[in-house]
């Protein structure tokens, strides 16, 4: 079992940025019909979510969240030893988006910088990767950011996806500490499910096939360039494998549901979260749901949820958080950590984007 | 669990209002209420009540409610 324990490393702060533009499933009633939209809302719990404009990227949102976090925490940027971004919506084919953020933030050359190509599990894996790096280095402070803008690729007539995705960027500050603080992570993967969530074309396997729409088994037309989700297989994976990982995590750490104050889960959809909650007997008040206002924000979603729930909390309260994320890969896991509510910043709105980064002609280069 | 109790739970999962319209021999895929969401509810029911995690390929072979019940209780 891949289980990691990081002693004397803590999550010293977290922040979240969202775009201002609001999208509502209700706006799609004319397109998909009243009944379909109501069914969708009931199943997913989504009543609205946020979308970036044409040129704003996940990297822009992550940059905003990271800048805000360091400013609020009063952190000297030169002390940041690593910047890692989890995303599947990069600014460019290459280089990795984390380098754009590195430049914009003006971080030092003495920084380890790279992207992790993961979706819904990116923060969970990111914590494991960054904490591992810190454990074996002299890095005392590191930034982990995550965000996706999956809606930009989604076929606008795919009713299973177009109303589901929300967009957000989050930033976490990891720090070495002398306090009693521990992060524990369990991570799992199953490549057998690579087709369950996939965008088949545009990668190096099939780079330029025709953009022809074809009727799929679920009655929705897609091209090979559109993200595809095999809903029923994803559902079975989440309701079978996620609780199993959580049970194994409890066994391994000698803890149980009662030991945690908050269950910050990937906000996949309401139906899935209810199933997991029911199966694990998690009290509803300990399991915040932010699907109604943010939609499914991919890897960022557990942090979006914490920022939304505790960002405005005025008291200093120590929270023992159990985070679980699961999705594309397939990739999933469970992580526990302590965080003071004062270190969880409220969600901010920001539509700014890196205009210099938009290259309109190769002749500019 | 008896088959009758299972039929009640099955009806609830699939959102068939009157469980008495169902029997062990009902071919559930022909029900008006059958949908991909109903499928999810049924596999969630099998998981919760019987701790049976059925693969989609195996579920596809099941035709009647009795066969679903048997898949839950065969151990």
Write the layout of secondary structure elements.
The complex is a heterodimer of chains A (365) and B (75).
Chain A: E1 3-7, E2 9-18, E3 21-23, H1 29-32, H2 34-44, E4 49-51, H3 58-73, E5 80-86, H4 97-105, E6 112-116, H5 122-135, E7 141-148, E8 168-176, E9 182-189, E10 197-198, E11 214-215, E12 221-222, E13 228-229, H6 231-253, E14 262-265, H7 270-280, H8 291-294, H9 301-310, E15 318-327, E16 331-340, E17 348-349
Parallel strand pairs in A: 2-17, 5-6, 5-7, 14-15
Antiparallel strand pairs in A: 1-9, 2-8, 3-4, 7-8, 9-16, 10-13, 11-12, 15-16
Helix pairs in contact in A: 3-4, 6-7
Chain B: H1 3-14, H2 36-50, H3 56-60, H4 65-73
Helix pairs in contact in B: 1-2
Can you describe this structure?
The complex is a heterodimer of chains A (365) and B (75). Chain A has helices spanning 29-32, 34-44, 58-73, 97-105, 122-135, 231-253, 270-280, 291-294, 301-310, and strands at residues 3-7, 9-18, 21-23, 49-51, 80-86, 112-116, 141-148, 168-176, 182-189, 197-198, 214-215, 221-222, 228-229, 262-265, 318-327, 331-340, 348-349. Chain A is an alpha/beta fold and 365 residues long. A six-stranded mixed β-sheet of chain A has the order 6-5-7-8-2-17, sandwiched between helices. Chain A has a five-stranded mixed β-sheet with strand order 1-9-16-15-14. In chain A, helix 3 runs parallel beside helix 4. In chain B, 55% of the residues lie in helices and 0% in strands. In chain B, helix 1 packs across helix 2. The mean pLDDT of chain B is 90. At the A-B interface, helix 6 and helix 7 of A face helix 2 of B.
């Amino acid at each position: 079992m891949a289980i990691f324990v990081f002693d004397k490393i803590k999550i010293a702060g977290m922040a979240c940025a969202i775009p201002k533009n609001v999208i509502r499933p209700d706006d799609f009633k004319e397109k998909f019909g009243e009944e379909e939209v109501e069914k969708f809302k009931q199943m997913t719990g989504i009543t609205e979510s946020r979308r970036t404009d044409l040129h704003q990227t996940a990297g822009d949102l992550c940059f905003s969240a990271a800048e805000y976090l360091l400013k609020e925490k009063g952190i000297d940027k030169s002390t940041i030893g690593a910047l890692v971004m989890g995303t599947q919506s990069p600014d460019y084919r290459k280089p990795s988006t984390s380098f754009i953020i590195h430049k914009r933030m003006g971080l030092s050359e003495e920084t380890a910088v790279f992207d992790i190509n993961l979706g819904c599990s990116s923060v969970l894996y990111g914590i494991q990767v960054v904490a591992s790096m810190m454990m074996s280095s002299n890095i005392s402070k590191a930034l982990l950011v995550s965000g996706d803008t999956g809606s930009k690729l989604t076929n606008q007539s795919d009713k299973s996806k177009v109303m589901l995705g929300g967009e957000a960027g989050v930033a976490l500050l990891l720090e070495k500490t002398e306090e009693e603080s521990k992060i524990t992570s369990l991570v799992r993967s199953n490549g057998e499910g690579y087709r369950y969530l996939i965008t088949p074309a545009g990668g190096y396997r099939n780079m330029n096939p025709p953009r022809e729409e074809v009727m799929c088994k679920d009655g929705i037309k897609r091209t090979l360039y559109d993200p595809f989700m095999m809903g029923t297989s994803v559902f079975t994976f989440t309701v079978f494998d996620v609780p199993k990982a959580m049970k194994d995590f409890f066994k391994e750490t000698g803890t149980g549901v009662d030991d945690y104050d908050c269950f910050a889960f990937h906000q996949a959809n309401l139906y899935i979260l209810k199933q997991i909650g029911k199966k694990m007997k998690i009290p509803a008040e300990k399991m915040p749901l932010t699907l109604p206002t943010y939609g499914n924000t991919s890897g960022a979603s557990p942090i979006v949820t914490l920022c939304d729930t505790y960002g405005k909390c005025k008291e200093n309260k120590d929270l023992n958080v159990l985070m679980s994320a699961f999705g594309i890969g397939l990739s999933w896991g469970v992580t526990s950590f302590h965080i003071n509510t004062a270190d969880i910043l409220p969600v901010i709105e920001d539509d700014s984007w890196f205009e210099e980064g938009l290259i309109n002609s190769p002749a500019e280069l | 669990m008896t088959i009758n109790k299972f039929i009640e739970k099955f009806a609830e999962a699939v959102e068939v209002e009157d469980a008495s319209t169902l029997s062990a021999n009902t071919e559930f895929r022909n029900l008006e209420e059958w949908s991909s969401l109903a499928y999810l509810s049924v596999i969630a029911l099998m998981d919760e009540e019987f701790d049976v995690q059925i693969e989609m390929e195996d579920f596809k072979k099941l035709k009647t409610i009795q066969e679903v019940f048997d898949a839950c209780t065969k151990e």
